[in-house]
Amino acid sequence: MSGGPGLEFEVAIADLESRIAALERQTDRSDATENEIRELRMELVNQLRDVYGSLDAWQTVQVARHKNRPYTRDYLNLAFDEFVELHGDKHFGDDRAMLSGFAKLDRFKVMVLGHQKGRTYKERAACHFGCAHPEGYRKAMTKMRLAEKYQLPLICFIDTPGAYPGIGAEERGQAQVIAESMFMMSRLKTPVICVVIGEGGSGGALGIGVGDRVAVLQHAYYSVISPEGCAGILWKSHEHAPKAAAALRFTSKDLRRLNVVDDVLEEPLGGAHRDHHQMASRLKTYLSRTLAELEQKTSDELVDSRYEKFRRIGVFLEDAS
Amino acid sequence: MSTVDTNASRAQAEAATNVPPKKRGVPEGLWLKCPGCGASVYKKEVEQQLNVCPKCEHHFYVSAVQRIEQVLDAGTFELMNDHIRPTDPLVFTDRRNYADRLIGEQNRTGLSDAVMTGTGMVRARRVAFAVTDSAFIMGSMGSVVGERLTRLIEKATEQNLPLIIVSASGGGARMHEGILSLMQMAKVSAALARYDEAGGLFISVLTNPTMGGVAASFASLGDLVFAEPKALIGFAGPRTIKATIGIELPEGFQTSEFLLEHGYIDRIVTRKNLKTEIARAIDYCGK
Ligand SMILES: [Zn+2]
Predict the structure, then answer these.
(1) What pLDDT was estimated at residue A2?
(2) What sections of the protein cross the membrane (chain B) (predicted)?
């Protein structure tokens, strides 16, 4: 799969990809053509290594938001053996921005929750570009309770620009449900694994982000505020989003260094959007290994160590005085 | 994709317009113009009424220190964890260094960060008490606010104390400490969940403004949620919402009265009744 349309720092890469594709379309390829393809491929690998080996924060955001990036539903198709979707929050509606259901992964039966952005325009509109409403978090909480009751490990895929900002969302308690969801997750007596697969946008992300293990994909980001939002407030213009992105220290490397995430999952060369299958297979390996680790613990041990894990986050000075 | 620009901290700048002057107490001079009724009111009189307009009951800004004086019995407050001080973990620089900004805010407000925590008495009932101050980087929560609140909640859990947190935080999670600020929401909420399991009584008092990551964590998790009249309370900032949906927001949107109407708070409590109401609630809950 090619990188698809769009990223400005990928102009040379996109050019190589289209040249290779054009050559490969020829039916009767001469040896010279085969050689050219081989050379272009090597050049492409070098370019991808260069560019993706040193993405800056703002470029990372572009990759995390890439239209061809695998979404929750892609991972459900590729990494899991079965997915039985469960709809509804039993209260107001069925938020398409929050996907939930039973799933099988190797020998494990699990509950999966995840933000869903949608691929086509129609899908994107139906799930508000991955921005959940309060009913999305209520839906998540009903599935969390179910998972706990039947001792299913919970897997949460985080991929949202943020919780939806709208009149209905405020009327139905956006702040309330995000708070309640974190509150509930922190005491959930079943293993919880959270993986930021694309955008980890603020409270909307953290609302399903309190886990025994929190992982992030190499080119995903996880931030207190969108770079545009931060630039608008502190630099008084959205145009300064690249500066804000750098200042916020939200790339996978930063997150690991700040002890906010436990693991970073390496992406295929050139980003997850170039190879959904490989990314899904790495994710599956990670989840399977982590589930096996967590199933060794009692639910009390899980809850206690989950508490301690979040308890330790924060940087401040403390004088003995 | 940046169609939607939602955020906990986003509310920060927007709420700023709703925060009266960034000074301790009410503005200088003998007379004040009340933003509630437009009348010129005598400043002394406002101060005597706990910074409430005598004509229309508009609730002006009060500092953390004033709030402590208003709610706790005189001389009973024991400040805790003031030695926990903010630093600049991201070496964050916008148009100004965060490190400099912190020093500036500390000098201007006399506070070491945006929350004061400790123990004290409410009409002779011992409580764990915290109050955020919207004058300090809009009352936003960074590592220090999260840590002080968590330690307070843990103390309340151990000592079986009722917990009162008064929020005045338009800033939500503090941008300058990035993801560490966001994580304080989870940390404090987790501490409250343990406190709840232990049977603790938490009274959350929402005042103008309580937005973003503060609204979306501890402020919404009270067994009882009180709000001062006409406070701005919500998740996303009004400007963000307007920019997203492109229509005018209804009158009274995201006020205390709006939240009461939609079922998210238990009582609207005027400032002069707050102490009595807290004491009464503690008695009902048998603590
Ligand atoms: Zn007035």
Answers:
(1) 47
(2) none
Do A14 and A99 share a domain, yes or no? no
Q: Does B106 touch chain A (CB under 8 A)?
A: no
Does A222 share its domain with A85? yes
Is residue A1 one of the residues assigned to a domain?
no
pLDDT of residue A231: 95
The confidence score (pLDDT) of residue A320 equals 64
| Domain-located, residue A318 | no
A225 touching B, CB under 8 A? yes
Per the prediction, chain A carries an average pLDDT of 95
Beta bridge partners of residue A113, listed in sequence order = A100, A156
Q: What is the rounded distance in angstroms from the CA atom of residue A113 to the CA atom of residue A134?
A: 15
> Is the Cβ pair B221, A222 closer than 8 Å?
no
Within a domain: residue A14? yes
Q: B41 phi and psi, to 5 degrees?
A: -120, 150
Residues A165 and A43 occupy one common structural domain: no
Strands A221-223 and A192-201: parallel
Is residue A286 scored above 60 in pLDDT?
yes
Determine the average pLDDT of the residues in B259-282.
98
Q: Give the total residue count for chain A.
A: 321
Same domain, A13 and A70: no
**Structural domain total, chain A:** 2
A79 with A190, same domain: the answer is yes
Q: Residue type for A157, please?
A: F
Instruction: Confirm or reject contact between B119 and chain A (CB < 8 A).
Output: no
Q: What is the pLDDT of residues B180-237, one digit of tens each?
A: 999 999 999 999 999 999 999 999 999 999 999 999 999 999 999 999 999 999 999 9
Domain locations in chain B as residue ranges: 11-25+61-284
User: Which of A183, A203, A254 minimises the CB distance to B8?
Assistant: A203
Residue B285 marked as a ligand binder: no
Task: Give the domain extent around A223.
Answer: 61-311
CA of B172 from ligand 1 middle (Å) equals 27
Q: A74 and A27 in one domain? A: no
Ranges of beta strands (E only) in chain B are 31-33, 40-42, 78-80, 84-86, 115-122, 125-132, 163-169, 202-211, 224-227, 233-234, 267-268
The confidence score (pLDDT) of residue B108 equals: 97
Which residues of chain A neighbour B178 with C-beta distances below 8 Å?
223-224, 247-250, 258
| CATH fold for the domain made of B11-25+61-284 | 2-enoyl-CoA Hydratase; Chain A, domain 1 (3.90.226)
Residue B10 has its nearest CB partner, among A164, A229, A247, at A229
Establish if B78 touches chain A: CB-CB under 8 angstroms: no
Q: How confident is the model at residue B17, as a pLDDT?
A: 43
Residues A178 and A48 in one domain: no
**Which residues numbered 286-315 in A keep a CB inside 8 Å of some CB on B?**
306-307, 310-311, 313-315
Q: For residue range A205-223, what is the model confidence (pLDDT) as tens digits?
A: 999 999 999 999 999 999 9
Cβ within 8 Å, pair A317-B253: no
- By 3-state DSSP, what share of chain A in percent is helix, strand and coil, each rounded to 5? 50, 15, 30
Report pLDDT digits (tens) over B10-55. Answer: 444 454 444 444 445 555 678 999 999 999 999 999 999 999 999 9
Instruction: Residue A170: give its domain's CATH number.
Output: 3.90.226.10
- Per-residue pLDDT band for B9 (boundaries 50, 70, 90) equals very low
* Residue B253 near residue A170, CB atoms below 8 Å: yes
